[in-house]
Inverse folding.
């Protein structure tokens, strides 16, 4: 069905990230990908945690949910299990998803929950103004590692591959077309998709130039994301920063598909009736 | 020296010679751990600061390090405290003294950054001793006092020192820094009873699976907590001798002949004191009782100070939804068996989510106490100024219009 609104996901709330923040690129790519995937705003929920990145649901015209630090995945899973017709996208930071809430990511990958997780990875805690993150590099100076970090950074992609992840990709907000394409593929994917979106924090840890110099597209090198061992190798590449889809398999049922086999395809949200506008009005009146 | 409440807390760790500081950032606390990180780097503080992956692991590591014999300091706020709550019960059960600073911030949802005391009062029943600060000086001094009490061999419980986010955490005040030498006299090195050290193998964190044994341990912790009150009073006497500042578990303000009294804690005490002074100038017999120690709850002192007053308002900057203020019933319980208890105990709730409270509002509370005396069951007061109500209604209305 053709969309009447030429930019259906455009919100009139202006994003208040710092000028130049990588998160602007992620927001633009997500809107573009949603539109290209032919979705309507009411078919999509964007959920988040707490962080600069997690303010994203406020800047896009879909259902939205601003949750707790580290918990976007269980929020997304809860929504998906109540109403699997919705496209559920979690957008959050590296602190959120690779740190305090990483266990949820591992288990969502293991179950192959049909949710899409976009981690805006800036290797720093942006909102709390510049502390060590799980992806901060060895030697990186932050406010809580003034001598340089002595902790090895987490490698989220191979970890999630080991956990049974079925779609694992990396992209870069300095390559908007690529980012939109990766998100479109994640949306098409059957099950859990992890998109590690390199999204530099220009205020506390600006890695724009470094990534710009080092990144290359896997697709340009004829890489095929269908082999687990090749995926590990590509993820551990030492010759730059590969972006693209490292691993993808579509033969594994999603958790929700398996659940539907047990529950006969009936879901809680099937019983939900929309609120009539009079009821909605009177509720609002009551609150005033 | 001029410094923020957060800086004063960091000085508490430094002067208190904390060995180990597991950390995790959260607004409005982060300045504390960042300051310590800087000092450690500059060699001004001989300690290990380690950023963890969450408050849960931070508190777990903190309690365990205390058992292993370290003096431990950490800090959090709001969601962080709640996330770690499971560990708070464990750490007190381990009898592991340590310092946890809470920079008060209201809890989600809805999400906000400014303070009320629902976060710290969620830790009320955990076994952590609780001290609440009104000024930056008090933040520093209470840390030293609380370490002393927590590590006392007759107490051996962890402690929380609370300061209000924004109102205190980011406000600069004059703070007198004691000398390192004086602090070591007052607070000697921690000498844990059974640390994990060579030739003394002990096992901690036992399972009991037995109601009687479980009750025994809980009762033991309870009596140790209650003992902390007299240990605090004794320590405070020495503190005053050395540093010249005196602290009691509750602080009476213009109470001598006060007939109408407000019970309050933390940073809004300063505004309430201003109201008391203004009322006094007009000949109104107002007084104030500040709660500095929340756990153990200083019931006997509260009863002693409030008996024979005509009316008392209890100001709760928190809400137990479906019941009311959290401190109110504790004050009521302290007074119930007093023959000359006040005629009126008025519940007041205000300052939720950091909502500002003016001196005029505080004065209104005193008027309300006077007016409500003799009332059958006085209506609880929920503070909101007319103009605040109007603005809020407008915001809700705008949100509605945007939505439709
Ligand atoms: C339980 C809990 N602990 C700590 C915080 C404070 N906090 C808010 S955002 C954040 C980290 C932000 O970093 P990241 O997730 O990488 O997002 P970014 O701001 O970099 O986009 C922290 C520690 C919190 N909100 N909740
Ligand atoms: S602080 Fe960093 S992550 Fe946050 S909005 Fe600014 S540039 Fe972006
Ligand atoms: Mg980040």
């Amino acid at each position: 069905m053709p969309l009447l609104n030429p930019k259906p996901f455009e919100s009139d709330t202006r994003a208040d990230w710092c000028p130049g923040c990588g998160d602007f690129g992620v927001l633009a790519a997500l809107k573009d990908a949603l539109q290209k995937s032919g979705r309507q705003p009411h078919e999509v929920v964007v959920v988040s945690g707490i962080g600069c990145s997690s303010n994203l649901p406020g800047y896009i015209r879909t259902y939205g949910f601003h949750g707790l630090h580290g918990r976007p995945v269980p929020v997304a899973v809860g929504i998906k299990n109540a109403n699997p017709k919705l496209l559920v996208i979690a957008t959050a930071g590296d602190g959120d998803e690779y740190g305090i809430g990483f266990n949820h990511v591992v288990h969502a990958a293991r179950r192959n929950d049909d949710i899409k997780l976009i981690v805006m990875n800036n290797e720093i805690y942006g909102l709390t103004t510049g502390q060590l993150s799980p992806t901060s590099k060895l030697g990186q100076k932050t406010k809580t590692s003034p001598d340089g970090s002595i902790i090895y950074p987490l490698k989220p992609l191979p970890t999630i591959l080991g956990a049974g992840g079925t779609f694992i990709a990396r992209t870069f907000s300095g390559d908007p077309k690529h980012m939109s394409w990766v998100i479109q593929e994640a949306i098409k994917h059957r099950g859990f998709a992890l998109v590690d979106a390199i999204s530099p924090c220009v205020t506390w840890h600006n890695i724009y130039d470094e990534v710009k110099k080092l990144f290359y597209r896997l697709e340009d090198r004829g890489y095929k994301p269908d082999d687990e061992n090749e995926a590990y190798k590509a993820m551990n590449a030492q010759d730059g920063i590969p972006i693209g889809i490292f691993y993808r398999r579509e033969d594994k049922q999603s958790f929700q598909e398996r659940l539907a086999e047990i529950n006969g395809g009936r879901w809680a949200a099937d019983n939900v009736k929309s609120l009539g506008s009079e009821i909605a009005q009177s509720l609002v009146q009551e609150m005033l | 020296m001029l410094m923020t409440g957060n800086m004063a807390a960091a000085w508490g760790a430094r002067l208190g010679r904390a060995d180990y500081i597991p950390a995790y950032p959260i607004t409005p606390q982060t300045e504390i751990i960042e300051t310590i990180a800087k000092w450690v780097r500059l060699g001004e503080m001989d300690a290990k600061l380690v950023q963890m992956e969450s408050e849960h692991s931070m508190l777990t590591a903190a309690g365990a390090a205390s058992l292993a014999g370290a003096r431990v300091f950490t800090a959090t706020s709001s969601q962080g405290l709640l996330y770690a709550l499971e560990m708070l019960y464990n750490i007190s059960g381990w009898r592991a003294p340590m310092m946890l600073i809470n920079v008060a911030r209201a809890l989600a949802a809805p999400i906000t950054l400014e303070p009320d005391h629902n976060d710290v009062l969620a830790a009320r029943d955990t076994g952590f001793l609780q001290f609440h600060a009104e000024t930056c000086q008090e933040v520093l001094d209470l840390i030293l006092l609380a370490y002393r009490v927590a590590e006392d061999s007759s107490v051996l419980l962890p402690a929380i020192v609370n300061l209000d986010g924004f109102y205190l955490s980011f406000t600069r005040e004059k703070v007198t820094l004691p000398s390192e030498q004086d602090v070591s006299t007052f607070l000697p090195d921690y000498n844990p009873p059974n640390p994990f050290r060579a030739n003394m193998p002990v096992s901690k964190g036992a399972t009991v699976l037995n109601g009687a044994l479980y009750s025994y341990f809980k009762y033991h912790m309870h009596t140790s907590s209650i003992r902390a009150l007299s240990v605090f009073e004794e320590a405070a006497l020495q503190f005053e001798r050395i540093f010249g500042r005196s602290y009691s578990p509750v602080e009476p303000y213009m109470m001598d002949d006060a007939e109408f009294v407000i019970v309050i804690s933390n940073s809004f005490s300063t505004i309430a004191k201003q109201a008391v002074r203004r009322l006094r100038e007009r000949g109104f017999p107002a007084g104030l009782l500040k709660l500095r120690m929340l756990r153990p709850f200083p019931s006997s002192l509260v009863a002693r100070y409030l008996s024979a007053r005509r009316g008392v308002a209890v100001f709760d900057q928190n809400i137990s939804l479906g019941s009311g203020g959290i401190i109110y019933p504790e004050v009521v319980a302290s007074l119930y068996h007093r023959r000359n208890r006040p005629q009126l105990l008025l519940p007041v709730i205000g300052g939720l989510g950091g909502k500002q409270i003016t001196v005029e509002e505080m004065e209104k509370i005193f008027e309300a106490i006077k007016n409500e005396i003799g009332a059958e069951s006085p209506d609880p007061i929920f503070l909101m100024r007319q103009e605040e109500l109007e603005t809020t209604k407008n915001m809700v209305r705008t949100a509605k219009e945007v939505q439709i």
